[in-house]
Amino acid sequence: RSSAKLVVPLGCLVSRLKHTLPDLPYDYAALEPHINAEIMQLHHSKHHAAYVNNLNVAEEKYKEALAKGDVTAQVSLQPALKFNGGGHINHTIFWTNLSPNGGGEPKGELMEAIKRDFGSFANFKEKLTALSVGVQGSGWGWLGYNKEQGRLQIAACANQDPLQGTTGLIPLLGIDVWEHAYYLQYKNVRPDYLKAIWNVINWENVSSRYAACKK
Q: Which residues bind Mn(2+) (predicted)?
């Protein structure tokens, strides 16, 4: 009898569980001159918002397909779930990875791990920048944590593929290299955007993510 009582409230909870666009922890103009306000506004309020909306639509359709036992429909919805779900996951991390008070170098355990796994901070920065510059078309450059091996790794992901869902690495720092992240300011010169973005990297956030995933 007690388990039967749980069915209705849980069902209601699931039906109301919609993804929402997270607020930025700073103003659109806060990252200038490195990333201008127009880019941030479009990137957050248009691009990220579209991923959220489309993810909610895809999940609703998937829920209907599950209820009907329609496996064909479930399979056909996988690309939309991956693309929009990844877009939402990636950007939610990205906004917190940036800060108007960012830049410089990390401290503490994260810095020690970077030195251990990449030789030096300068070497790590050079490798992640080169990897991100080299992404063909649209995608992301990432610093992730390999929990099995207990070490940091860099990786590139195409389109909006989420790092953990596609590589198993826990995301610490993501660099968006889709053109919408930089084109209005840096045109087609991706290396200039990547040079600038290091000035607003929020190392406190990256360090917190590193500490959390080691627990």
A: 43, 91, 176, 180
- Which residues are documented as binding site for Mn(2+)? 43, 91, 176, 180
pLDDT tens-digit series, residues 100-145: 999 999 999 999 999 999 999 999 999 999 999 999 999 999 999 9
Domain contains 28: no
Query: In angstroms, how far is the first alpha carbon of the chain from the final one?
Result: 39
**CA nearest 155: which of 80, 214, 123, 166?**
166
Expressed as residue numbers, the domain containing 51 is 37-97
Q: Are residues 114 and 49 in the same domain?
A: no
Residue whose pair of structure tokens reads 């489309």 in the numeric block? 54
Residues 6+ apart with CB under 8 A from 147: 170, 213
**Known binding positions:** 43, 91, 176, 180
Claim to verify: residue 85 and residue 123 sit in the same structural domain? no
Q: Which two tokens stand for residue 116?
A: 């251990």
